[in-house]
Write a structure and sequence with these properties.
Number of helices: 5
Strand content: 15-25%
Strand order of the largest sheet: 3-1-2-4
Largest sheet: 4 strands, antiparallel
Helix content: 25-40%
Distance between the termini: 30 Å
Radius of gyration: 15 Å
Length: 127
């Protein structure tokens, strides 16, 4: 299985998907999260191949253990910019801290609904 970074135009729920090919990764992401792959411009990037994922049936979102075992490294990040605008309790209700992962020289930032909402309100710069 391959590991793909899958993102949508709104960047609310970007994350890694294990799938046999890019088409399967996009289809899984879109169906699971309710995106239209044509109207919402769901895109994918091949991150790496991981033979250990071959035993897992079907496409799925990677969990933290799979990311680490496939060579990913978590980068410490505490959403201080978000916490300047909303209380910690509110941020936790929406999903907690944003995960950032490095694979080799590439860095990927998890989609965060609260971050996107604050960007749309002009309270945070768009990344």
């Amino acid at each position: 299985m391959n590991i793909y970074w899958v993102e949508s135009c709104d960047h609310c729920e970007d994350w890694f998907v294990a799938a046999s090919d890019a088409e399967q990764a996009v289809q899984y992401f879109a169906e699971y999260l309710g995106y239209d792959i044509f109207e919402d411009k769901v895109m994918t990037t091949l991150v790496c191949e991981d033979q250990s994922l071959m035993t897992v049936p079907g496409p799925h979102f990677l969990d933290n253990r799979e990311i680490l075992s496939s060579g990913g490294e978590f980068i410490d990040f505490h959403d201080q910019d978000i916490l300047e605008h909303v209380p910690q309790e509110t941020a936790q209700l929406v999903g907690g801290e944003t995960r950032i992962v490095r694979y080799g020289k590439n860095v990927f930032m998890e989609g965060n609904v609260l971050r996107v909402a604050l960007q749309m309100e002009g309270k945070l710069p768009k990344s």
